[in-house]
Amino acid sequence: MLAKEKDFKAFLENGKASTTAVDSCGTVRVPTGVELFYQLYVVRLCSMVQPDASNQMDSPIWTPLHARRPERYIMIMGFAAKGEDWQPLIEQFLRASKTVAQNDRTLEICVFDNRGIGKSSVPKPKTAYSTEIMAADALGLMDHLGWSKAHVVGFSMGGMIACKLASMQPHRVFSLCLISVTGGGWQIIPSTSKALGTFLKGMMDRSNRGRALTDVKFHFSSATRHAMYEGREIREILEEQYEASSAQYGRQLPEGEGGHAHACWTHSVTVEDVRSIQSGGFPVLLIHGREDLVAEYRHAETLALRLGARLVLLHGAHFIPRECSFEISELLLSWTSSQELQGTDGDDKSSFAKIVTGLVASSDRASKVALDPLIVNRIRRDSKDRDPVGQRCMPGWCCF
Questions:
Q1: How many CB atoms lie within 10 A of CB 22?
Q2: What is the separation of C-alpha 167 from the centre of its chain, rounded to a whole number of angstroms?
Q3: pLDDT at 209 over 60
Q4: Which of 160, 219, 281, 397 would you call most buried, defined as having the most Cβ atoms within 10 angstroms of its Cβ?
Q5: What is the pLDDT of residues 130-162, one digit of tens each?
Q6: pLDDT at residue 134, as a whole number
Q7: pTM for this structure?
Q8: What pLDDT does 266 receive?
Q9: Which stretch of 1-5, 99-103, 232-236 has the lowest confidence by average pLDDT?
Q10: InterPro entries attached here (predicted)?
C-alpha cells in the first residue's frame, strides 16, 4: 500500500535499480526441450554499523561480519509476464529493510521467462503448455544452476506452476510462497460483473491502448490508480508505461498467450498434490490482494485451508509484487529468515504472528491488520472496509 510521494516515485520507476544486482544471465536448454532465458541476482544483506569518528562519510557503512550459505530463491512469473517483472520486489530486497534482522545474508535469486514469453522458446501447440510441464522447466533450470533445493516463489500462473513443482519434487523445496494464486480451472474466470465487464472490454479491444487500460485496472487497486503524483493520477502514468512497453517490445505471440491460458485453465490442485506438498514438511505461505479482480481472494482462502498454509491479505489488487513490493519483501525476508533459524516447522504459529506483528509495527504503510491471528476464526468476504477488530480470520491468517 502506497502512502507517500517517495513511495510513488519508486513505484513508478518499476524496479529499474535492481539491474545493478544481476550477477549473470543467459539462455539454457532444459530437459523438457525448450530454451529458457534467465537472470541470476545476488543480493548481499549485511550488518549496518555506525561510522567511527575518523570517517568523514555521513551515511552508515554496510559491512559483512560472518558469511553464511546463500539463500536460494527461484521466482516464477505469471500469465503473459516476463521474469524481469519481479524487479520491483528485487529492488526492495536491495534496500535491505531496517525492520528485519538482515545480518550477513546472501540471496541468490533466479528469475526467468516462462516458455511462451520473452526470450524463451514459444512452442506452438497448446498441449506444450501445462503447469506440470512448466514446473519441469523450472526444475531443469534449478539443475542447470546446480541448486538441489530452493525457496520457491510464484505469482499468479507462476504460483500454479510453483504448486506443481512442490508436489512433483517436494524434497527440493525449502519453502513455498504463492502470491495472487488460485486453484486454476473455473477459478480464473471473473465472477463479478465489474471484473467480467472489464475483461470482455479488454478482449474486444486488442490495441496496445486497450490492453493497457484493461491491465492497469486489473493490476492495481483503486486507491493506487486514483492517487495523485506531480499533478496527475497514477492511473494515467501507468497506462502510458504499459502502452509504451507494448509498442517497444511487442505483444506476446498468440501461441504463447494461448498456451499460458491453456495452462491456467487445465491446472488443478489434486488431493495427491496436497498430500505430496504436505509430505515435504516445508512451510507454505499465501499472499493475496484484497481487491484482486483477477484471482479473487476467496480462492486463496480455499487453497490455504487445503494446504494448511498461512495466508496474508494486503491492501492491493492482482499485481502486488509491484503494488505492495515493500510489504511482500519485508514479509518474505522475515519469514524465510525465521525458517532458516528455526528449521522448517510450519506449525510455529507464535513465530509467524511475531513476524507479521513486527512488520505492521514498523511500517507506516500497512494501515490495517487483523487482531491476533491466533485467536480469530474466519475471514469474511465483506470485511475489507471494516474495523480490523471486527474481522475474523483462520488461525495463522492475518489481514493488512
A1: 16
A2: 19
A3: yes
A4: 160
A5: 999 999 999 999 999 999 999 999 999 999 999
A6: 99
A7: 0.84
A8: 98
A9: 99-103
A10: AB_hydrolase, AB_hydrolase_1, AB_hydrolase_fold
Q: How many domains does the chain have?
A: 1
| DSSP annotation string for 384-398 | TTS-GGG----TTEE
Cell of 339: 525458517
Which triple of cell numbers denotes residue 14?
518499476
CA-wise closest residue to 86 among 143, 148, 22: 22
pLDDT at 330 over 70: yes
246: left (phi over 0), alpha (psi -120 to 50) or beta: alpha
Which residues make Cβ contacts (< 8 Å) with residue 400, sequence separation at least 6?
A: 1, 312, 313, 314, 315, 327, 360, 366, 367, 368, 369
User: Alpha-carbon distance 293 to 45, whole Å?
Assistant: 35
Question: What CATH number does residue 379 fall under?
Answer: 3.40.50.1820
Domain range for residue 324? 5-399
Q: Which three cell numbers stand for residue 208?
A: 496496445
In a 13 Å sphere around the CA of 122, the CA atoms on its Cβ side amount to 13
Query: Mean of the pLDDT values across residues 175-184?
Result: 97
